């Protein structure tokens, strides 16, 4: 079996099945599903990979990846039980799924599964060490619910990176 055939056979059955973030190896399951979705998106076009990505986005909502930094939902999904480093790893998974969903939406001219006003997960801020320190000090950047305020977030990001 060649590499392409082996990878394509993994895309079909592989999806994050775990209903909770607290189960062992669940982060790796989600990472694997994201990597396979990226691979599938760029290697195969069609309903199968579209459904895979849409299903991944729905499951991300189900376990609360969109609410990692939402103060009102921290304990609902178990994010309050994780270290900041672990939460940052999950943020990477969430934003990967967000990008996949956005790319799928653009390429198929269909609405995105993920609604920006539902996102309560902070944007990523470079390397994990600096992100962990800044987040512990209360500095989190969230996408504003009102798109008119997006310029403020952009200014904040630019100021942090200067």
Description:
By secondary structure, this protein is mainly α. It has one domain. It has 7 helices and no strands. It has helices at about 5-10, 25-45, 45-65, 75, 85-110, 130-135, 150-160. The longest helix has 25 residues, at about 85-110. One of its GO terms (molecular function) is DNA binding. One of its GO terms (biological process) is DNA-templated transcription. Keywords: Nucleus. Pfam families: Fungal_trans.
How would you summarize this macromolecular structure in one to three sentences?
With 162 residues, the protein is mainly α. The chain has seven helices and no strands.
Please give the structural blueprint.
Elements (H helix, E strand, L loop, with lengths): L2 H9 L14 H18 L3 H17 L10 H4 L6 H25 L19 H9 L13 H12 L1
Helix pairs in contact: 1-2, 2-3, 2-5, 3-5
Pfam families: Fungal_trans
Protein name: Xylanolytic transcriptional activator regulatory domain-containing protein
GO molecular function, one term: DNA binding
């Amino acid at each position: 079996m060649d590499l392409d055939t082996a990878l394509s056979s993994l895309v079909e059955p592989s999806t994050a099945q775990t209903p909770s973030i607290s189960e062992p190896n669940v982060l790796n399951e989600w990472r694997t599903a994201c990597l396979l979705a990226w691979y599938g998106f760029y290697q195969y076009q069609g309903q199968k990979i579209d459904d895979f990505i849409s299903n991944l986005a729905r499951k991300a909502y189900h376990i609360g990846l969109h609410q990692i930094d939402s103060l009102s939902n921290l304990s609902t999904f178990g994010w309050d039980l994780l270290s900041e480093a672990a939460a940052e790893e999950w943020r990477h998974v969430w934003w990967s799924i967000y990008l996949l969903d956005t790319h799928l939406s653009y390429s198929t001219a269909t609405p995105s599964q993920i609604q920006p006003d539902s996102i309560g997960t902070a944007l990523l801020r470079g390397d994990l060490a600096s992100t962990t320190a800044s987040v512990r000090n209360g500095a989190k950047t969230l996408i504003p619910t009102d798109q008119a305020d997006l310029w403020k977030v952009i200014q904040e990001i630019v100021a942090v990176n200067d």
